[in-house]
Amino acid sequence: MESNNLVKVVWDAMCSAPASVGDALRTPALATVDQSGGPQVRTVVLREASRPAKSLTFFTDTRSPKWMQLKDSPDVQLLCWCPERKWQLRISAQAETTQVGSRVDAFWQTIQSTSQAADYMSLLPPGSELASVTPDQIDGHYLGIVDLYVEEIDFLMLSREGHKRFRITGEQVTELAP
Length: 178
Prior knowledge:
The protein is an alpha+beta fold. It has a single domain, classed as Roll (Pnp Oxidase, Chain A). Helix content is 16%, strand content 38%. The protein has 3 helices and 9 strands, in the order H-E-E-E-E-H-E-E-H-E-E-E. Strands 1, 2, 3, 4, 5, 6, 7, 8 and 9 form a 9-stranded antiparallel sheet that branches. A hairpin with a 4-residue loop joins strand 3 (46-50) and strand 4 (55-61). The radius of gyration is 18 Å and the shape is elongated. The model has no long low-confidence stretch (mean pLDDT 90).
């Protein structure tokens, strides 16, 4: 792979991933820092990607520990591994959270009649113990949007002919030792 078109190739792949259920790039691991300074990693599902904005978007429950971690410490990293392409992407980004507004309402409209809506309407926050809870009707949802603004991508491509590694910063590409 030539470094001169690497930015396009990587962003084209990231931008197509949200619509491709089987694409490994659609479900990266997100690393955050908790209140005690410890690392927390979990899988997220990409919902949007934009090369012009250099952003990646996912949803989460606004009551989750992840939401508070992102608000308290917006420096994050995503790890993508795509076995078909033999790519590893370590994406450093700044998280921005959105809990209310027309954009949240628009996303909610697209998922509210699907089984996915239940993930954002639970009486209990994610990670809560399932004790004897009496289910009640809730009014509304806890859908939050997280936009990750990409600062740098560490791109590693594995190959029998020799691994290739690059740092992508904006539109700039620097070749690195693998």
